[in-house]
Amino acid sequence: MTTQTVEYIRYRIPEEQSAEFLSAYSRAAAQLSAAPQCVDYELARCEEDFEHYILRITWTSTKDHVEGFRTSELFPDFLAEIRPYIPSIEEMRHYKPTTVRGSGSAVPTLYEWAGGAEAFARLTSVFYDKVLRDDLLAPVFEGLAPEHAQHVALWLAEVFGGPPGYSETQGGHGHMVAKHMGRGITEAQRRRWVNLIQDAADEAGLPTDAEFRSAFLAYVEWGTRLAVHFSGPDAKPPAEQPVPRWHWGAAPPYQG
Ligand code: HEM
C-alpha cells in the first residue's frame, strides 16, 4: 500500500487578486519542484466560478510533508509567496487514495492499437519460426511445445492491455517466470530475442508508428532483462503478483 497522500487546498480568490495569486504561485512552485517530498502538483481554476482554485499536491507521505517539507529550508520562501492568500483558504487537508481508480477509454490500449488478439497471434507465429531457425536461439527452444507461440501471444496480449487470457488459462505471472528459471539465458541470446521480435513485428504488420514501437520495445527490453535475471543461478522465484500491464509511457498515441 502506498504511503503517498494527496493534499487539496481550495482557495476562493477575488477576481481582482487572481493575477497576483497566479504569479505568486508560479514563484512558489519552484520550492515544490525542488522538494524531494513532493511527487507532483497542479493548480486548477474552476471553469464555472473563476474565483475558485484547487491546488493538488501529491506528497511522498503526510509525515514527509508535515515533518519534512514544512521544516526544510525551502519552506520559508514558499510561505513568503503564499502567505497573503492563507485567509482565502476554504479547505486544506490530506486525502489517501482508495482502490477506486483507473483510466477511461479516451486512449486506446497498446493491445487495441496493435490490432488485438490476431495481431499478437501473427507476431508470435512469425517470431518462433525465426527463433527455431536461429543459430543462437534454436538450442534454447529445442523440443518446443507447438502451443508455446499461442501462450506467449496470450501473455503479450494481456500485458498490453487485452483480456486476461494468460492469467485465466495458463497460471499467470508465477507460471511464466518459472518457465525461465535455470535456463541460463545469455546476453547475446537476449539481444537476439529482442532483434527477432522486432523483425517479426515488421513482418506480422504490427503498427510502425514511433509511439507504438517505442512502448513495445520498452516492454521487450524490460521483459527480456527479467527473463535473463530469472534464468540465472541465484534467482529466487518472485512473490506471486499479477501479470504486468504496460502503458504508452511518455509518448501517447498520435491521434491526429
Ligand atoms: C519479453 C520477454 C519475454 C516474454 C514476454 C516471454 C514469455 C514467455 C512465456 C509466456 C513463456 C511460457 C509459455 C507457456 O506458458 O507455455 C515463456 C517460456 C519460455 N521462454 Fe520466454 N519470454 C521472454 C523472454 C525470453 C528470452 C529472452 C528467452 C531466451 C532467450 C526465453 C526463453 C523461454 C523458454 C526457453 C521458455 C520455455 C519454453 C517451454 O515451455 O519449453 N524467453 N516465455
Automatic annotation (TrEMBL):
Residues 8-78 form the ABM domain. Keywords: Heme, Iron, Metal-binding, Transport. Gene3D superfamilies: 3.30.70.100, Globins. CDD domains: TrHb2_O-like. InterPro entries: ABM_dom, Dimeric_a/b-barrel, Globin-like_sf, Globin/Proto, Hemoglobin_trunc. It comes from the Bacteria. Pfam families: ABM, Bac_globin. Residues 233-256 are annotated as: Disordered. This is Group II truncated hemoglobin. It comes from Streptomyces cellulosae.
